[in-house]
Please model this.
Amino acid sequence: MVGCMQSTSLQGASSHSGRNVDPCRQSDRSPEHRFLFAMGDVAFVAAVGAQAALVMHTMHDLGLAFVWASILGMAAAMAIQMLMAFVVAPLLGSIESMTPSMVVAMVVPMLLDVVELAGWRPDMRVSAQLGAGFGVSYAAYLMFYGARCRRRFSALVGRGVCP
Model:
C-alpha cells in the first residue's frame, strides 16, 4: 500500500470526519471499504483460479503428452495470472493481488492434473468451477489467517511485548 513502508502515519491525509488516517491500519477504514476490497480480492482470486483451470484443461485437450501438457499448462496459467495481477494491482494493491493469485495459479493446474491422473476428466465448466472454488477457498483461508494474526499481534501490543 502507498505510504505503509515510508512512515507510520500520513500527515494531511484525512477521512470524511477530518481526523488523520493511517492507510496501513485496518481500523482506519470504513466497514464498507473493507467489505468492498475483500470482495474484490475474492473475485480476483476466483477469476485466476477459473482461468488457470481453463488453461490446463485446454492444454490437456490439445492431445500433448501428459508431462508436456502439465508443464505448458502451468507456464501458461502463471503467465496469464501475472498479466491479470498487473492489471488489477493499481486497484487492489500489488501484494494483495499478486501473492494469493500466484499460489492459486500454481495449485489449480496441479489439482486438475491429479484429477485427470485419478481417471476423472471434467468438462470445461466443471474445471472452471473447481478452479474458482479453490480460489474462493484460498481467499477465505487468507482472510481467516490475517484476522488471527491481527488479533494475536494486537494482544501482544496491548501487553507491551511489541512496540
Remarks:
- Confidence is low (pLDDT under 50) at residues 1-17.
- The two ends are 21 Å apart (CA to CA).
- Residues 124-158 form the longest helix (35 residues).
- The helical segments are 31-61, 66-92, 94-117, 124-158.
